[in-house]
UniProtKB/TrEMBL annotation:
Provenance organism: Mycobacterium pseudoshottsii
PANTHER family the record matches: GLUTAMINE-RICH PROTEIN 2 (PTHR46766)
GO biological process, one term: response to host immune response
Family according to the record: Belongs to the mycobacterial PPE family.
Pfam family, one: PPE
Protein name per UniProt: PPE domain-containing protein
UniProt domain PPE: residue ranges: 3-166
Transmembrane segments: none
Amino acid sequence: MNFLVDLPELTSARIYSGPGSGQMFSAAQAWDGLAAELRLAASSFESVTANLMAGAWQGASATAMAAVATPHAGLLQGLAGQAEQAAAQDRVVASAFEAVRAATVHPALVAANRAQFVSLALSNIFGQNAPAIAAVETDYEEMWAQDVTAMVGYHSTSSAAAEQLTPFHRMLAGLSGRSVSSAVAGGRLGGFVIPGLSIGNRGLLNLGLGNAGNLNLGWGNAGNLNLGSGNTGGINLGSGNTGSFNPGWGNAGKLNLGSGNIGKGNFGIGNTGNFNLGGGNTGGHNFGNGNSGNHNVGGGNYGNSNFGSGNIGSGNFGFGNSGNNNIGFGNSGNNNIGFGLTGDGQIGIGGLNSGSGNIGVGNSGNNNIGFFNSGDNNVGFLNSGSENKGFINSGLGTGRGPNLSAGIGNSGDLNTGLFNSGGSSATTNTGWFNSGSHNTGIGNSGDTNTGFFNSGNLNTGLFNSGDVNTGLFNSGNNNFAAFNAGSTNTGSFNAGSSNTLAFNSGDSNTGYAGSGNYNTGGFNSGASNTGFFDSGDLNTGIGSPVDQNVANSGFMNTGTGNSGIRGTGDYNSGFANRGTYNSGADSAGHEAGMTSNSGVLNIGSNNAGFLNYGNYNSGFRNTVYPSGTPVGNTSGFVNVGAVNSGFFSTGTGDSGFGQLADYSSGVLNAKDYISGYFH
């Protein structure tokens, strides 16, 4: 039996059809009765022995009897304590069973769900029940997750209760002249524990760093059965997911596959809603990219139940239709079948161009060059937005200027590339399949990222679900390197915050595998130690369990709680740091209250990396404007300004390489709100 994979029909039936907690409470009462009898027997035995020794029985035989009787009385008292402990732990398990029974889905609800599924499936002749079947299956998955979560809690509590029991054979083994079989019960109720394979975890059967919950593999997960880092919820695979059953990065909800999805049952990137397949869809049950509405198939449709791309309205089949229930291309009106028709209920082909100033065929907008453009000032085919160059672009103006999208299938504004989606809220992307804004790269669902598949914001790198990271797979914020679930780390695999180097589950450590805080060295579980394997506090050396009565550990430190060498301030680790809660080397706050840097030669607060100036930066040599706010929020390398990602940019809100303006993406652009290259 494995409750992690058992169907909810089985789990719920077992919980509700068993004997219940009554027999466990009865057993606890019986253990209490046995304990009382044992204590009474011990008291009576001690009383009889004492009376004999105080009376006529004297001599060597009396002394020998007393030598044997005293441990026997102690044994009876010890066994009574064991019985009382068994009663207490039995009650703990019984209470846990009552809790799991209350948390488990009732079998009748599971049966009703399966019956509804069968009924819908049998009557789904034309596929009309597909949405209802999907909803029923989602409810069933939620029941499954609820049962698994309840059983994980029950297993954790019962195993912990069993671990606290002392086996009876340990008491019996001390009796003179007696041998006790090793087959006597050892006190476990089932389950197992893996000791020593993780650092800073709270819960059962976690492998990794800083997990809170049960059966997690990874870093900084809060919940059960997560594989990855920084997940909040249960049964997630990936990083930075909030919810359950999400494989991917930065999803908020359940049953999402991909990154940056908000809702449930989405497959893709940056979808907001439920059961969307694609990227940047806003609504539900869409198939494609950049649809705003429900039940659309295609890209960049605004409305419901459209099949095609760039349709504005509902029930359209084709491309670039404005209105409802049109079939064809570039129709303006309702219930038309054909090309370039204006009005309602028409069939056929409009003029070569129904707009003005067009060159080509089937343009229903104005000043277009190409075929079947229903917007204005487009060059290409089937563009329903304005100022586009390319194919099937459906972006609309946002009031900041013309669209200027160049590429294929862009449903956002001011994009360069392929299939950048998200409607008018997704602007100024350079690359492919970006559903956020101001991104340079591929598949970014957050904003102002440089790289691939980032679901957070202001990242430089790959698969970051947090914000302002430089590196890979970071689910925390302001990290430099890879796989950090905490924040402001320089290094990898840190579940804590403000650490320099790797595998730290505590905070502000310089070194490796620190589960405590403010340590310099490795494998320290205490605080403010300089050395290795110290479990006490303020030690300088190796393996000390003692708390030292000193202000700092290490050498030439000034302040309180520092470790390392030449620290000035409080609770710093590393070398020559000034301020508070810094790790690494030679970092300092540039005004009062600026703290928590990691790395080398950072000035400000909450920086990770090397030679950064300002606040909340990650990477290398990022600097705020000399006259500007100290808040940088920049990732990457050698950027000057604020809220940037990428390389060598000067401005605000830029991604990419060498930007000289604001809110631009791409390479070497000198204009604001632009995407692409060399503008």
